[in-house]
Design a protein that fits this description.
Elements: E1 18-20, E2 27-29, E3 31-34, H1 45-57, E4 62-64, H2 75-88, E5 96-101, H3 116-130, E6 135-140, H4 149-161, E7 165-171, H5 175-187, E8 192-198, H6 205-208, H7 211-218, E9 221-225, H8 246-249, H9 260-276, H10 280-289, E10 294-299, H11 304-311, H12 321-336
Parallel strand pairs: 3-4, 3-10, 4-5, 5-6, 6-7, 7-8, 8-9, 9-10
Antiparallel strand pairs: 1-2
This protein binds NADP nicotinamide-adenine-dinucleotide phosphate.
Length: 339
C-alpha cells in the first residue's frame, strides 16, 4: 500500500548538483546513497524510511544496492522493495537504482564470483526483492580471475538486452582488466556506464592505479564508495567508539585501525575542517567532488542527521594549496600506519 502521507518535496532538485556520467545521457547526483549497512533487517523500517525520504527530498535520487547488502544478505533489497511499495513507486522514473552480484550470496558453486549462471540468477532474485521490473545499473561486483572475462561481460550485455538493466557497470577490477571489460562492452554497443571503487582522502588506489584516468578517457563515469572510509573520516571516532557505530560492531570497520597515530591525524584533519567552517565529513566529501573525474560519491548513513551533515559538503568551498598539502600529510601518516 502506498504511504498517503509522503509527497516528495517540490524543491528536491534545487540544491543538488547533477554531473554527467561519462559519455552518456545520464546525470547523477553529486551525492548518492548506499544501502550496504543500516538498511537491513536490524534497523526499524520507520528510521529507514525517514532516511530514504530525506535523501530523495534533497535531490539524492541514486540509491546503490547489492544482492548481499543487509545484514542479513538480501534484506537491504527487501527493505528497498518495501520502500517502493510503501511510498517510492510513484517516483520510479525519478530514481536511479543500482544493484550488483559478484561476492558471496548463497551456498554452493553458483552463488559467488562472476559466472553467467550466478549473475543472471542473482539479478532475477534482486528484482523480486526490490519490487522492480528493471534496475538502472547492474554491476559485476568484482573481478573474477577464474572466470573468462568474456563470460562475465557477455552476461552484462545480455542482461541489458533483456531490459532487466538499462546500463552495465563494473566494480573493483584491476586497471588492465577494467580496460578489457570496457572494450568488450563497447564493441557490443553496451558501453560501461560506471566504474565503482573505494576512493577517499585515505585510500587513493583508483587515482594511483590509473582507474580515474582510464574511466575518464573511456567515457565511463567513476563513482566512489566508502568516501568517508566507513565513518573514519567523520567526527564519529574522535572521542571514543560510540556503542551504536559501525566500528563498535567490529566487522567491516575494525577497532584495531583506530591507533593513536590514526586518531591524532583524524584530529588534525578535523581541525582543518573546522577552520574552513565544515564538518570533517563535509570536507572529506568535497575533497573528492573537487575532481571532475568523480561523477558521484556514495555515502552511507545511519541517521537523517548524517545525511543532512553530508549535504553541506555541496556548499563547494575551494581548497587552498596549503590546506591540500596539510590534508596530504595527515593522509600519508594514516596510510603509513597500515590502513
Ligand atoms: N562496490 C563495492 O564493492 C562496495 C563496497 C562497499 C560499499 N559500497 C557502496 O558504497 C556505499 C557507502 O559505503 P560506506 O557505508 O562504507 O560509506 P561511508 O560514507 O564511507 O561510511 C558511512 C558511515 O559513516 C558514518 N557517517 C556518515 N556520515 C556521517 C556524518 N556526517 N557524521 C558522522 N558519521 C557519519 C556512518 O557510520 P555509523 O553507521 O557508525 O553511524 C555511516 O554508516 C555502500 O552503502 C555501498 O552502496 C560498494
Amino acid at each position: 500500500m502506498t504511504d498517503p502521507v509522503y509527497a516528495a518535496s517540490e524543491s528536491r532538485y534545487e540544491q543538488m548538483p547533477y554531473r554527467r556520467c561519462g559519455r552518456s545521457g545520464v546525470l547523477l547526483p553529486a551525492l548518492s546513497l548506499g544501502l550496504w549497512h543500516n538498511f537491513g533487517s536490524f534497523k526499524p523500517f520507520q528510521e529507514i524510511k525517514a532516511m530514504a525520504h530525506y535523501a530523495f527530498d534533497h535531490g539524492i535520487c541514486h540509491f546503490d544496492l547489492a544482492n548481499n547488502y543487509g545484514p542479513a544478505y538480501g534484506t537491504a533489497e527487501e527493505t528497498f522493495g518495501h520502500l517502493m511499495a510503501d511510498s517510492l513507486k510513484p517516483y520510479r522514473d525519478e530514481l536511479f537504482i543500482s544493484t550488483k552480484a559478484g561476492w558471496d550470496m548463497w551456498p554452493g558453486p553458483y552463488g559467488n564470483w562472476g559466472s553467467r549462471k550466478y549473475l543472471m540468477a542473482s539479478l532475477d532474485q534482486s528484482l523480486k526483492r526490490m519490487n522492480l521490473d528493471y534496475v538502472d545499473v547492474f554491476y559485476s561486483h568484482r573481478y573474477d580471475p577464474a572466470t573468462p572475462l568474456e563470460e562475465t561481460m557477455q552476461a552484462l550485455v545480455d542482461i541489458v538486452r533483456q531490459g532487466k538493466a538499462l546500463y552495465a557497470g563494473i566494480s573493483r577490477y584491476p586497471t588492465p582488466k577494467a580496460a578489457e571489460a570496457f572494450r568488450y562492452l563497447a564493441e557490443r554497443d553496451v558501453p560501461c556506464l560506471l566504474y565503482q571503487d573505494r576512493y577517499n582522502i585515505i585510500d587513493r588506489a583508483p587515482a594511483e592505479a590509473g582507474q580515474l584516468d582510464l574511466g575518464w578517457q573511456n567515457g565511463t563515469g567513476f563513482i566512489s564508495f566508502s568516501p568517508l572510509q566507513q565513518g573514519l573520516l567523520t567526527n564519529r571516532y574522535l572521542n571514543g567508539i560510540p556503542a551504536d557505530s559501525r566500528m563498535a560492531r567490529n566487522t567491516s570497520l575494525k577497532q584495531s585501525v583506530l591507533t593513536e597515530t590514526v586518531l591524532e591525524s583524524l584530529r588534525g584533519l578535523d581541525a582543518i575542517a573546522q577552520r574552513r567552517g565544515q564538518s570533517l565529513a563535509g570536507m572529506a566529501l568535497f575533497w573528492l567532488l573537487r575532481d571532475e573525474r568523480v561523477t558521484s560519491v556514495i555515502i552511507g548513513a545511519s541517521s537523517v542527521a548524517q545525511i543532512e551533515d553530508n549535504l553541506k559538503a555541496l556548499d563547494f568551498l575551494s581548497f587552498s594549496e596549503e590546506e591540500l598539502q596539510e590534508i596530504e600529510q595527515f593522509s600519508v601518516r594514516i596510510r603509513e600506519s597500515g590502513i
